[in-house]
Amino acid sequence: MTLTWKQARSLEELRAELDRRAEVQPRTRGTISSGIGPLDRVLPGEGYRRGTLVEWIAPQGGSGATSLAWQVAPSVLREGASLVVIDPEEEFYPPGLATLGIDPSRLLVVRFPTKRRDAPPRQGRRQRSRRSRDDPRESEVVWALEQTLRCPAVGMTLASLESLESRSFRRLQLAAEQGGGVGVLLRGPTATKAPSWAEVRLRVEPKPSQGKVRRWRVELLKCRGAAGMTWEWERDRETGVVSLATQLAPPASRSFAAGAS
Amino acid sequence: MVRCSLAASQLGVALEMPAAEASALAKQHHQYRLQIETHDPAADREMLERLARWCGLFSPAILPEEGEEPEALLMDVTGCELLFHGERKLADRLLARFRRRRLTARVAIAETMGCAWAVAHFGLPDRSRASEGSWSLRSVRAGDSVPADAIVIPEGRGASALRPLPVEALRIPGEFLEVLGELGLTRIEQLEPLTFASLAERFGDPLVRRLGQAWGLVSEPLLPPEPAPPVHADWSFEEPVDSSQILQAVIEKLIEGIVALLQPRGEGILRLECHLHESSSQRDQWSIELVSPSLSLRHLTELLRLRLERSPLAQPVMSIRLLASKTAPLSVRQQSLFHEEEGGHDPYALGPLINRLRGRLGDRAVLRPRRQADAQPERACRFDPVKQIGKGRQGEFKPWSPGPRPLRLRSRPVPVEMISLVPEGPPVRFCWDGQEHFIRSVWGPERIETGWWRGSAVRRDYYQVETAQGYRYWLFRRLEDARWFLHGSFD
């Protein structure tokens, strides 16, 4: 079958139109903005893919990696979905979200009260004082995380996990796929060596601030098409926007320019 | 023909007309087909009772009127109007509730039950004059020319609203109406000059009682109906059973029975209690609580399974009783579907997740952070167990505190060794967890002095510090003894 020039032309146009739509699609449906400009620019579909896990690896507390992980929350809240924090350590402090501009009204926190076999829990009185601070079994945390990831009403689930078996990891990934939200895992440095079922894996290292502006060196350890990239980011103190660090006054240590891979 | 719809009465269908004649009329003139149902007073009554329960959110005291074939719901709203910002709003909302169910209702609120009944059935006096006094009980019953409406008779105006109404508005039996009609007494105002004593002599007590109730001289108490008894299902074993598998199978069977019983009521389970009678006359009981009513067999079975895993059997069990001790109408759930269609996620979709987490981890596992007006950081945020879900209160987001707050706060501040070059001077380095941290930048102090009324006053100077490596911590110096503590980290 032969086509006339005009037919071929319109076919060409249709194809272009299809391509254009296919490009728009993932941005609106398949992905959600990470809330971090430089990261969105390199991720395929300009954001985290829905129904996947994202790992943030930081050496220790106080690094600011958690606040970077939270950047996705405003996009989730705008869509009307809920946020869930799995908090076995019972140290999550919601007032800290205020500086990130996150409204905690649709936030749920899951904790693991230690069980008492014999005495039924008394409801009237608060009894936080005598609760033992033992870590709840890891399996319970993973179970709760899996259940939460599977819930379609939850847009983002955040949990910090030190160790995670590969099989459980895979289960979490499948649960996220089913629920369609984004699972954000905060990991310690030992996680770097372990295999990952996360779609995106980032390593964060704090850098000395410029004035009060916080800075980080961030390495994209795993990502389709853009792994191995390293940036230096900073957060604007007023707007909370995370962007590439300005190079006006380079810090003493080596700085990493944007786009280097 | 006992009742007909508004549309049918416009076709000329009248009451007490044979059904065949009515349908012939409709077909002949208008090409309509009437849908004719057999008159079933018992079903009508049951429906009215269900409607009464369905209106329970407006007042606890709501009943169908007395009599063989009730057709009105009586509701005592004394004091309830405060919850709805006035009687007018209450009446409008009640009407809107019926309208959403495509039910035509007339609502009247007045000082006395008799007056409200009269006005609901016969309208306001000025309207009856407008329709040339053509009001008759029959036309009202047919439903024509009486649109759905809500009337509120203000306090002290009940008598003037009653006076021009026909005597039928007094809720008196037909034989009295005939006698009154023979005497030419057709309006309530004509009865007013007559004394109660002479009326009682002439017509007997029922008329006097009704008249007195309408004027508010005889009280007409409305006793709230007994709530429907909680649904339960029992199972007894012939031999004591200690296998949790058998137990689980039995419980699943029982829950099926409970769901079947609740289904016609249109209610979902909020709390399900399980009573286990053990062999040595001992009892064990536990319950599961749901955050939104559910009748989903799958979900309830899953929750019970999670709960059973949590508390294994201590002793063999003789019998089981499952009791749905708290139920709620499922219509709440259905309304949320509209919310979902408007865009955004359905808040009730979280229900199954919360139920599951609570089922396995306990009632205090799923928490909602709440802001508290307290300057002391540990007390600025409260974690409330989620008991019920609804639309999240949005838009009331206020900053939690004036200063910067970390994302991680230790419930007990950790004492640290702080080295300063000058006493009371800026901190230089601190030891914590066996590590030495050199401080590069310090922001602060933010002084927090509070809690003296609790008996343990808090006097602290908070500093945000950044170490040489770029880690940020939240430290404070206790002003009483100048000791340093690490309270949180800017994760």
Automatic annotation (TrEMBL), chain A:
Write the protein's name: Protein RecA
InterPro entries in UniProt:
P-loop_NTPase
Q: Where is this region: Disordered?
A: 113-137
Which SUPFAM superfamilies does the entry mention? P-loop containing nucleoside triphosphate hydrolases (SSF52540)
Organism domain of life: Bacteria
From TrEMBL, chain B:
Q: Does the keyword Disulfide bond apply?
A: no
Q: Where do the UmuC domain residues begin and end?
A: 3-118
ATP-binding recorded as keyword: no
BP-aspect Gene Ontology terms = DNA repair
Q: Which InterPro entries is this protein grouped with?
A: DNA/RNA_pol_sf, SulA_CellDiv_inhibitor, UmuC
Pfam families named in the record: IMS
The UniProt keyword set, sorted, is: DNA damage
Q: Which PANTHER family match?
A: BLR3025 PROTEIN, BLR3025 PROTEIN-RELATED
Q: What is this protein called?
A: ImpB/mucB/samB family protein
What organism, scientifically named, is this protein from?
A: Kolteria novifilia
